[in-house]
Design the sequence.
């Protein structure tokens, strides 16, 4: 919470609990088949998107101090249908939000009052090339699924590069959550570099 | 056809499609899933069965999403219970459609019981209890059918599956990417996490 500046605006958005860590500009694919979430998608696509609330057993276990509830406010950027006919959507995170309260909507999914917060990952950094960027570029090149989600890559933006690294590294979600709640850009950068470069 | 499969799933001869189906191939895929947790083979099975199941389920459920749920749940059970298939007792198609029939009956029963009560709290937990219900939501990730069974796989396979489906690298993938032994990557991760914890401690002490 200490790293975060809350803006004053409060807005109501559908909320979808998922074990997905997504920072601003991050993209992921979701499969939607439950009636209530199909409804949510139709509401979200004609409205202002929805919030993915990072939700995971490891985080639950770690809640000890009235931990901040935060989520990723996403917009639906692509619709598709899988081979099996299930709706697939690509969502892109536009900012992080603090979840102030949650209530039930008439449509059986939940709606949350949220305020968006500023996080380093949404500020664009100057064009810099770095080893982290080069290494990330290789990851994209080797992984078609991931590559397809990012037709445009901001590999010159050190914040963008670091955010994508945090999303894909194999670490527990409660640790990842710390990069929103506890750690600043420098700490996150040191962390990723120490994994990638020793 | 639809009623046939649901009411008499064991009567394989009633299937009009049976002469076009490559039964030995289906059998091989299912066994490969059972013995080696072979994702490729499962994908083949999925491609073969999912459209058929969906077509049948659509006849039973007016709601498209429920029909899809039948597909997902059936294939999820196929993955999980593949080892229970016994070649001597019948064809793969028979077995899969039996799995599907059971899923369908369960769902129909649930719908009967819930007619007026679809929004009740036991189906949709509200904020306080949300965090205890996370399992229920995992399945919206890519390739849901596999995810519900990931937790039951040995760790090495979990890593592969999660890495592929959850858009997150596995430790193995990271090791390969960095061209380092897995052990080195693991200890780097451990060290880096340790440092983070120390930093956090310093911040709040």
Sequence:
């Amino acid at each position: 919470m200490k790293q975060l500046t809350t803006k004053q605006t409060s807005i109501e958005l559908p909320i979808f609990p998922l074990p997905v860590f997504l920072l601003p500009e991050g993209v992921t694919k979701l499969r939607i088949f439950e009636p209530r979430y199909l409804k949510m998608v139709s509401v979200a696509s004609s409205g202002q998107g929805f919030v993915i609330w990072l939700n995971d057993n490891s985080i639950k276990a770690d809640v000890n101090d009235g931990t901040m509830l935060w989520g990723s406010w996403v917009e639906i950027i692509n619709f598709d249908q899988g081979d099996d006919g299930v709706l697939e959507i690509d969502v892109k995170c536009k900012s992080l939000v603090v979840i102030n309260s949650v209530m039930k909507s008439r449509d059986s999914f939940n709606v949350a009052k949220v305020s968006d917060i500023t996080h380093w990952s949404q500020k664009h950094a100057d064009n810099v090339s770095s080893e982290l960027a080069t290494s990330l570029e290789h990851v994209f090149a080797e992984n078609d699924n991931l590559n397809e989600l990012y037709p445009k890559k901001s590999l010159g933006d050190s914040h963008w590069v670091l955010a994508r690294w945090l999303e894909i590294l194999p670490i527990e979600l409660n640790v990842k959550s710390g990069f929103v709640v506890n750690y600043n850009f420098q700490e996150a950068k040191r962390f990723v570099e120490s994994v990638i470069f020793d | 056809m639809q009623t046939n499969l649901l009411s008499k799933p064991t009567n394989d001869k009633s299937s009009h499609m049976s002469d076009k189906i490559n039964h030995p191939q289906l059998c091989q895929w299912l066994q490969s899933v059972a013995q080696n947790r072979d994702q490729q083979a499962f994908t083949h099975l999925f491609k073969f069965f999912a459209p058929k199941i969906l077509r049948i389920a659509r006849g039973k459920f007016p709601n498209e999403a429920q029909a899809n749920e039948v597909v997902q749940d059936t294939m999820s059970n196929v993955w999980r219970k593949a080892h229970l298939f016994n070649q001597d007792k019948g064809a793969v198609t028979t077995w899969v459609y039996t799995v599907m029939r059971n899923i369908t009956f369960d769902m129909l029963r649930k719908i009967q019981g819930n007619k007026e009560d679809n929004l009740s709290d036991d189906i949709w937990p509200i904020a306080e209890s949300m965090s205890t219900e996370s399992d229920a939501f995992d399945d919206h990730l890519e390739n849901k059918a596999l995810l519900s069974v990931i937790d039951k796989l040995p760790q090495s396979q979990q890593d592969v599956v999660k890495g592929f489906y959850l858009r997150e690298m596995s430790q193995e993938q990271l090791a390969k990417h960095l061209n380092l032994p897995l052990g080195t990557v693991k200890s780097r991760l451990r060290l880096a996490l340790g440092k983070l914890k120390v930093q956090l401690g310093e911040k709040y002490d």
